[in-house]
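We append the chain.
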Amino acid sequence: MNLHVDAPDDAADIRLGQFAVASQSSLQERRPRTLKHGDTFGVFDRNGDVLSGEGSPDGLFHRDTRHLSHLDLLINGARPILLSSTLRDDNAVLTCDLTNPDLYDEAGRLLLAHDVVHIRRSKFLWKSTCFERLLVRNFGDRPQRLMLELRFEADFADLFEVRGTRRMRRGTFHPADVGSETVTLTYRGLDGLTRTTRLRFDPEPARLESGRAVFDVEIAPRQRAVIFVEVRCDDGRPQRRPREHYLSSMVEARRALRQSSSRAASIATSNEIFDEAVRRSVSDLYMLVTDTPEGPYPYAGTPWFSAAFGRDALVTAYQTLWMDPALARGVLQFLAANQAKTEDPTADAEPGKVLHEVRYGEMAELGEVPFRRYYGSVDSTPLFIMLAGAYLERTGDTSTLERLWPNIEAALRWIDVYGDRDGDGFVEYGRRTQEGLINQGWKDSHDSVFHADGSMAQGPIALCEVQAYVHAAKRSAARVASVLGMPERAALLETEADQLKQRFDRAFWCDDLGTYALALDGHKRPCRVRSSNAGHALFAGIALPERATLVAETLMDASSFSGWGVRTIASTEARYNPMSYHNGSVWPHDNALIALGLARYGFKREAARIFDGLFHASVYIDLRRLPELFCGFPRRRGQGPTFYPVACAPQAWAAATPLSLVQACLGLTFDPQTRTVRLDRPVLPDFLDEVELRNLAVDGCRLDVAVRRAGGEVATHILGRTGDVRVEVTV
């Protein structure tokens, strides 16, 4: 992400403040409701309204522009009372149940007592449009004459403005085009693009103005009235009336969600609360997936990162590879199509480098932020190669890898030529434009890379986890080369990976800390800081076996493991702050990768402890939805985790975390050549007695399998299979 990079390291960095998310209000306090489809997402309050105001994240957004900045519902001039606000389990529809407050006339006489009229608002997104149905019921014993009013506004703010950036100039707002049942709001940006918001109402309002629609509704006792509202974020003009368009679009939207999620394996367990968390995770994941010409691609998260990010999608696809390889294929093909081919310092682009972020808003188009097509991440490129190798191992899909091989070779060249800036055999980063990100690993806050005394590390910086990813990338590329019939290339890559492993151990190992250094600075001095980054050395397999025990112990020490998860840095370190973005917080996806690493080196019980901590954190969180991060305060009996105020939720790699933790604890791998599903020394965390995995796909075959606790051990049972597929269990 590119959050909280606003504190400059020199005078030229003052403009970096524009990339930060303003922390004037807490998303966790508001608990907004979020919907997404494709390049459109909506952030609503619990009433289903879009409330404007300083620092409000509410709105209907399309391609990084807020197309609706205000929408609220009034009944006889008063705000309805909230009864409940729920998202369907599949995230297809937001339903808000409301009722009337006590309503008085101008003389103060009670006209309508509270709780007589029920209003059910149902909202969903489909193809650049927000659809809404208002179902109004009269539960009284006499007719009611009501005035329902919808007030609306579109500020066409760029997403970075909504995040807190101040702009000196804006484009031109055109007068609203008001018809009998339609209002069109139009803005022409400084980038020359015209953006429109079209609102349609059915039935025709009694009064329709540039900022409000008023309906005079008479409802007999026990009867109802229905109003349809449609907010479209482009200039398309549907042929059907809103009533028919609502119904047909809902059918299409729900069918599309079912089709996308049905290809994935499913999880059912002995713990109903965990099953709720899994259902929400899967629903969030597929809501965030956007269909691109290259295949399905998980956008990073809402509200701030509903866009194509390289690193986030690669990690998410890796976490979910065991259950839905189609996501990995879509991510690989999209990133291959957008791989840098030339040098462009303004975008931190170099040949072979893999994308960091794509934005479509006015500020990106004008270059006011550098993220129109931005390559400033040091880890996306090796992660791309890692995922390609893992995808081949999971699926045996050689035809896709043959098409991707030129992109893999280009990525390898970037690692060796551009990534290794000083020729020492490590991959470093240093931005090529003052507009770019200062830190370009996943911990990209301005203060996330530092020495033991708290002083900032000066670049170019070689991060611990990036070297681990490069090592794994070369191993992965070697396996791909071998399968594709290039044994000499495979042997060379294996040799390079072995050499990097030894070089890494010599440069990064800190015996007195019991872990690997966070990074090397530009003078090759190690940043002697206990951090979660070292867990990625386990994940990617660069850690020497003799180091693994100490690394695991350090990660699970009370200074690092909060009880909810492993902190980004230990509480013993100079810059530790449990409320910071990267210096003491707990990130679910970080912990998922650490758990995979612990399991890789045989520390399954430690992986299960991480699983247990994150599960119990989710119990205290709205919708059982793990957020982007939470604060790193120690776990206390009977209390939940402390929330981070502007954490995104849903977030793709956080949503994928419970799914990845299941794989880590079960030691789940696949061999498509022999059609074998393997479980390596499976363990179950304390809160689970049984896990059932269904629809596991292996080379066209399907398998259902259960893992059950049996005394102090676990036992595996085949529940069903289609085709010649088998199970191997290592105990």
